[in-house]
Structures are given as C-alpha cells and as structure tokens.
Write the structure tokens for this entry.
Amino acid sequence: MIRLVSATIAGAILLIIAPIAVRGATVDVTVGPGLSFTPASVTIAIGDTVRWDWAGALHSSTSDNTTGAEVWNSGLKSTGTFSHTFSTAGDWPYYCTLHSSPGGTAMNGVVHVTAAPTLTSVNPTAGPSTGGTLVTLTGTNFISGCTAVFGGTPATTNTVVDATTMTATTPAHAPGVVSVDVNCSSGTATLMNGFTFTLPPTISNVQPSSAPPGAQVTITGTNFVNGANVLFGSTPASGVTFVDSGTLLAIVPAVPPGPVTVTVINPDARRATFDAFVVLAAAALPLLSGAALVLLIAALAVAGVIALRT
Ligand SMILES: [Cu+2]
C-alpha cells in the first residue's frame, strides 16, 4: 500500500518535472579534433543547452565574457562532453584557451540566445470558420519551430520566414473572435482578439422580386459583411449599400430581362445565391401611334387646352 502511494507520488512528481525538462533543447557542438568548433555558430532559445563533444584533441570551450551573464569554462580536455544551459538572451562568444583568445579567430565560436517572441499583427484579421486562410504573423524573435495557435486550435501549416515574419494556415474553428498565440521554444506571444472566424452569408429574400435596371432592391439574409459585392447574373450591381449584417441595398445593373441569380460575395470571398429574381424590361417612354396622337389632340381641344383652326 505504501509502495503504491509512493509510486503514485513519484509519478505525479515526474508529470510536474517533465514539461520543464522538455522545454530546453540540447544542441551539440563538436570540439576539434582540428582548430574548430563545429558548427562555430549556433542559435538557441533561452533555456536551451549547448553540449560540446570533444573529438580526441586537447581543447577548451571558454566564454569570452568574464563578467557577463553567461560564464563557462570546460577546462582543457580531449574526450567527453561539457554542457552549459543559457538563461540570458544575447550573443555569447567563446574560444579555446590553448589555441586562441577572446575575440580571436584561431579557434572561436558563438552562441546566439534568442529572447521570447512577441506578436504585433495578424493579416488578414478574418477568415472562414472552415479554416484554410493563409495569414501572415508579424512580431519579433521568431525562430525555427515556432507554431501559431488560433483560439486554442493549432494552425495546420507554419512557416517561419525570418525573425519578424511567419505564415500560418488557420484551422477550422467555431465562429467568433479569438486570440492568436505564437509558441516557440523560447516562449509564447499572444495577440488578444487577433483573428475572427466568420460564417458564410445566406440570402433569404430579394424585394421586390422583379425590377428593371436602375431600380433598388433590398436583399435580406445573414452574415453580410461591410464591403460585400452583389452580382446580378455575372454583372456587378450598379451600387451596393451595406445596412447591417442582415440587409443590403443593391441597384439592378443593365442586364437583359429575365430571371437571374443574385449573388452576395463577402470580403472573405464566401458567397450566397438567390434564384427567384426577375429583371424586367427597362422602362421606356411609350411611342404614340398616329391615331392615338389625333385622339389626344382632339381630347385636348375638347378640354379647351388648345384651339383647332376651323
Ligand atoms: Cu584548442
């Protein structure tokens, strides 16, 4: 019983320690056998460890900085390893005491330690709740392996372009405004309300149900976004007014009479269609026939509006 309890406690302690142990990565640098550290320059995150592995010749890994935050000295050795875990961002040069000097070139190396990332903008700021929007994230201290998270759901692709730019593809997510995180081995940056997952528009009605070119119709539906476009068939409306997310006003463009499909296209390119609309013939002044003209003149004469010669 006691053994079971202590095993449970040990397990619990392991669970607590494991994330801390996983957090810091270890990067290997080979020392020698010639006058070189390989690779001579490594980039790591705060909390990562550099492990120097000796290849058989006598050398040291000794920090240039004697007063800086990162001070280490392996001493001269020819086999085995020496490790140092870096806790401060910055560039930390080092050298071999036997073959070079601080700031020298004969046998020197440098460890670049990057700080935690920051995230300042996400572009575009909205996309469909079905995911698949390629967004550009801008910030600082992005490093290889950083990944984006939208409202708690990981991006489906992540590409770190450079220290200030990365791209990511949004996952599917419930509609709404979410925070965006960038997770790096050096830390996490969060942009509150950084992205909005949107729903596609729908059209429930177009009123009146028939109208000639130049007439204004009212389109009712859901999820309209300011900036939406309206098509009659394949012809853009002559004018569109965004009233609210459920109402658009559109002016029928010059298209041939007959039934057309009315389409609303939101700025995120998602669209809705409505098939029960008819374009009427353009209103024209009626042409008077000769007989009608005679009748009109006679009527006006009877009314005394004009005088006919007798
Ligand atoms: Cu050396």
